[in-house]
Amino acid sequence: MSHTAHIPSHRKPRRSASKLALRAGVAGGVLSTIAVAGAAGPANAEPVTETIEMPTLGSLDIDLASAVSASAEASQQEALDLSLQAQENAAIEKAAKDAKKAKAEADRKAEAEKAEKARAEARERASRTQARTSLSASSSSSDSGSSSSADSSSQVATGSAAAIVAFARAQIGDAYISGGTGPNSWDCSGLVQAAYRQAGVDLPRISSSQSSMGTSVSLSNLQPGDILYWGSRSGSYHVAIYVGGGKYVGAQNPSTGVVERSLDWDMPSGAVRIL
Q1: How many domains, the chain?
Q2: Which pLDDT tens digit goes with each residue over 36-95?
Q3: Which residue(s) pair with 259 in the sheet?
Q4: CB distance 222 to 251 below 8 Å
Q5: Whole-angstrom distance, CA of residue 161 vs CA of residue 167
Q6: Same structural domain, 127 and 184
Q7: Which of 231, 235, 226, 225 has the alpha carbon at shortest distance from 267?
Q8: Which region among 70-84, 119-133, 192-206 has the lowest average model confidence (pLDDT)?
Q9: Strands (E), the chain
């Protein structure tokens, strides 16, 4: 063992560079304070000591953390505002596209309904033309000596038929409305149903059912109060009431309303007798 093993070392421990810098700064601050005080006062004045508080590292850390937090909150709010604006713009764009699509669909349906209506009117005209042609051929081949009650102007309605004819004629000039059942607007079957109710007869509501009632009669053997129909008997699309004298009363269409017409104006396909 060395003879110096138990002898403590008298060498001072080394101070770290940061501690030396801190002490140097504090010492410098104190010396500056003393120098300022000495220079400002008179030679025989007592020295004035003024302590200048230096900001601590802790307070600087708090201020820095607050600034960082405020900046983060501002950035987060700005991002949220941008996100909401983007969502709002997307919703507006979607609503505009949906509205445009709905309009296009509505226009397409309207065009389809218009085309279907035109086809239905064409079918109705064709059916009436065919009925007129068939009736003309039948009339030309019949006995020339036979008399037709449809051509007679001397027919007078009596009894229940008179009530039906009077009611039908009282509605001439009323408007035509699809589904109308009175008292001031009618469709064809609504008028026929109401007229027969005056005679105590309850008829079905629609024309095809009304023309299926009673007994089929020839157009050359009509009587006042008979129901005229256009189309087939079980599938008629229009009905009216024969009032005598070769004429009928019916709710014709929206442009004419309830009118009295000659059979020649629009020859029916057939007739049925209820009474």
Answers
A1: 2
A2: 444 444 545 555 555 555 555 556 667 777 887 788 888 888 888 888 888 888 889 888
A3: 250
A4: no
A5: 10
A6: no
A7: 231
A8: 119-133
A9: 175-176, 185-186, 215-217, 227-231, 236-244, 247-253, 257-262, 270-273
For the segment 95-116, the average pLDDT, to the nearest whole number, is 81
CA angle 216, 164, 181 (to 5 degrees): 95
Classify residue 263: in a domain, yes or no. Answer: yes
31 in a structural domain: no
Q: Comparing 66 with 121, which gets the higher pLDDT?
A: 66
- Lookup: tokens for 118: 């035109």
| Higher pLDDT pick, 216 / 32 | 216
Spatial separation of the C-alpha atoms in residues 46 and 201, rounded to whole Å:
136
> Beta strand 175-176 with 185-186: parallel, antiparallel or unpaired?
parallel
Q: What is the pTM of this model?
A: 0.47
20 located within any domain: no
> Which DSSP string corresponds to 64-100?
HHHHHHHHHHHHHHHHHHHHHHHHHHHHHHHHHHHHH
CA-CA distance, 188 to 223, in Å (whole number)?
19
Domain assignment of residue 111, given as a range: 82-134
The pLDDT, as a whole number, for residue 231 is: 95
Residue with token string 């026929």: 192
Q: Rounded distance, CA 55 to CA 53, Å? A: 6
Asked if residue 182 and residue 268 are part of one domain, the reply reads yes
Residue 176 belongs to some domain of the structure: yes
Contacts for 34 with CB less than 8 Å, ≥ 6 apart: 47, 49
Question: Which CATH number characterizes residue 265's domain?
Answer: 3.90.1720.10
**Per-residue pLDDT tens digits for 14-24:** 555 545 444 54
**Residue 192 near residue 203 (C-beta atoms within 8 A):** yes
